[in-house]
Amino acid sequence: MTRIRVLFVCLGNICRSPLAEAIFKHKINRNGLHQHVEADSCGTSNYHIGDTPDDRTVANALRNGVTINHLGRQLAVTDLQDFDFILAMDSSNYRNILGLPGAEVHKEKILMMRSFDASDDHLEVPDPYYGGERGFQEVFEILDRSTDGFINHLRQQLSSRL
Ligand code: 4NP
Description:
By secondary structure, this protein is an alpha/beta fold. It has 5 helices and 4 strands, in the order E-H-E-H-H-E-H-E-H. Helix 4 links the parallel strand 3 and strand 4 (110-112). Residues 10-16, 43, 47, 127, 129 line the site of 4-nitrophenyl phosphate.
């Protein structure tokens, strides 16, 4: 059976989406879902192609027990075909994904990350880039909750496939 493929998307691919990818992988490696699911992340911009994640994101993740291992890449049209879930961190990312040529037919798989946040599913994952340490911890906590909600969603989907 083919694995479910998940893509996390933000603007720069150095703060929010590589962290979402790392938290998600950390959890699926622990709970065994990695046999059925794989994940990647990217940015809508070309600002940080090939770059390691932001030092502040890396340090904050480590303080929370999560290691990030990713190099920046830009969202590509082929991602629309290659992934089963494309999760946008904010509404600007969402609009940019939907703006790719041919994206309309893939609309169902393009979702907001926080639609899986049980504490508030209407909000965005805020961009921590220009803020302080508190912003990075807030983003970690939002992504921790949102990945939990998303994993529950995947479990339901997988139980009907297995
Ligand atoms: P991210 O944060 O989208 O969460 O990776 C940003 C990183 C870099 C920039 C903006 C946001 N930037 O303008 O370079």
